């Protein structure tokens, strides 16, 4: 039985549009997506939704982003490191999601940081919130230092080679149950 295309959603928590974080996250999603079989990719850049996230009435664009995240098979969640953790923008978006909202997703946390001393943030903070929301986080998160961004393709290719087998196993296990 042929598996349908996996929905790979890239969630970018950088408040700056067209950020390095976004570029790196897209590379990560492409590297993993290219190894897991058929995949459709969607990018949600929270910088474009920032004003709506603080609104008392939920704009359609925010609802659409939430629905895309909830429907993801694979969710690449990317943030720069701010004060040793992920951004408030990403936190604001994730706080809108109900408990266990990510139970159907294999989540891959990714952080871009200026200093290696913050490398644990991807595991201690970002992984923790994804697990709290019910996501299955099958592998260690990816960490890129700002000085490595120019080599991101090469670095993420190696990372994807390590994580894709676990993601494929999760997706395969789900389709066998369905």
From TrEMBL:
The keyword Transferase does not apply. SUPFAM superfamilies: Flavoproteins (SSF52218). The keyword Transit peptide does not apply. One of its GO terms (molecular function) is oxidoreductase activity. Residues 7-148 form the NADPH-dependent FMN reductase-like domain. It holds the Pfam family FMN_red. It comes from the Bacteria. InterPro entries: Flavoprotein-like_sf, FMN_Rdtase-like_dom, NAD(P)H-dep_FMN_reductase. Keywords: Flavoprotein, FMN, Oxidoreductase. This is NAD(P)H-dependent oxidoreductase. It comes from Actinomadura geliboluensis.
């Amino acid at each position: 039985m042929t598996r349908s295309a996996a929905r790979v959603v890239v969630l970018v928590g950088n408040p700056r549009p067209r950020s390095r974080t976004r570029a790196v996250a897209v590379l990560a999603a492409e590297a993993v997506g290219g190894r897991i079989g058929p995949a459709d990719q969607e990018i949600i850049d929270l910088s474009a939704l920032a004003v709506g996230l603080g609104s008392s009435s939920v704009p359609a664009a925010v609802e659409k982003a939430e629905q895309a995240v909830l429907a993801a098979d694979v969710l690449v969640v990317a943030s720069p490191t701010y004060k040793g953790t992920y951004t408030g923008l990403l936190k604001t978006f994730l706080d809108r999601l109900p408990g266990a909202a990510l139970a159907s997703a294999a989540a891959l946390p990714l952080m871009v940081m200026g200093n290696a001393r913050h490398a644990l943030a991807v595991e201690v903070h970002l992984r923790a919130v994804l697990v709290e929301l019910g996501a299955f986080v099958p592998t260690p998160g990816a960490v890129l230092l700002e000085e490595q961004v120019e080599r991101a393709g090469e670095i993420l290719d190696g990372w994807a080679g390590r994580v894709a087998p676990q993601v494929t196993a999760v997706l395969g296990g789900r389709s066998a149950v369905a």
